[in-house]
């Protein structure tokens, strides 16, 4: 069995002394896992997290771990290496993808958004781009936040709050009796973390440490 696509290298863990197990977020097949031979000892073209490239995955049986042939086209993350904040956000995004997306399921919208995110992390709008990306991630996982109208009365005015239960906007008047229980808009990292924790609970996984770290920092 052979699969070809393009993707983002999101995780790389040593396997023995020479090889590595790579997780690639691919355009066509979502998360793919496989061995990269010689990844730890390569002098030229060493695989690095944050690279975007083309891949070919091979296994004799579909159920096997398989092996990647990886051709990095660019390392968009290279410019982020000297930017700790941007790097922290990239790590968090990659860990969330790795923890929450099922293997071999296509998420093309999230893929495009992730490419866009890596590009934007080097800019002054990094944090807002990151929050927007998490909102897309939540939507793709079935937790769409709806800010179009009040979940109580339907108005489109004075939408200042968000319900932690439903993820829908609540107007100022409807929020009054629950003022200590609703979130103040706009959406920030605290708000998205609350919903990410629900997704993690449902999937029986822990919220990645890199994501918790972001909340402490911003
Ligand atoms: Zn209302």
Ligands (ions, cofactors included)? zinc ion
Largest sheet properties: 5 strands, antiparallel
The percent range for helix content is 25-40%
* Spatial sequence of strands, sheet with the most strands: 3-2-1-4-5
What is the count of structural domains?
2
Mean pLDDT: 95
The global form is: elongated
Calculate the terminal CA-CA distance, rounded to whole Å: 45 Å
Catalogue the unreliable spans.
Answer: none
Element pattern in H and E: EEEEEHHHEEHEHH
Structural class by helix and strand composition: alpha+beta
Number of helices: 6
Radius of gyration: 20 Å
Strand content is 25-35%
Task: Tell me the total number of β-strands.
Answer: 8
Element layout with pairings:
Blueprint lengths: L1 E14 L3 E8 L3 E7 L14 E8 L8 E9 L8 H17 L7 H13 L5 H15 L18 E4 L6 E3 H4 L7 E2 L4 H15 L5 H9 L1
Antiparallel strand pairs: 1-2, 1-4, 2-3, 4-5, 6-7, 6-8
Helix pairs in contact: 1-3, 1-6, 2-3, 3-5
The structure holds zinc ion.
Please sum up the structure shown.
This protein is α+β, with helices and mostly antiparallel strands and 218 residues long.
Q: Can you describe what's shown?
A:
The chain is of the alpha+beta class and 218 residues long. The protein folds into 2 domains: 2-77, Nucleic acid-binding proteins (OB fold (Dihydrolipoamide Acetyltransferase, E2P), Beta Barrel); 82-143 and 187-217, no CATH class. Helices cover 33% and strands 25% of the residues. It is built from 6 helices and 8 strands, in the order E-E-E-E-E-H-H-H-E-E-H-E-H-H. It has helices at 84-100, 108-120, 126-140, 172-175, 189-203, 209-217, and strands at residues 2-15, 19-26, 30-36, 51-58, 67-75, 159-162, 169-171, 183-184. A 5-stranded antiparallel sheet has the order 3-2-1-4-5. The chain has a 3-stranded antiparallel sheet with strand order 7-6-8. It is elongated and about 60 Å long. The N and C termini lie far apart (45 Å). Bound molecules: zinc ion (ZN). Zinc ion is lined by residues 150, 152-153, 155, 171, 173-174. Zinc ion binds next to helix 4.
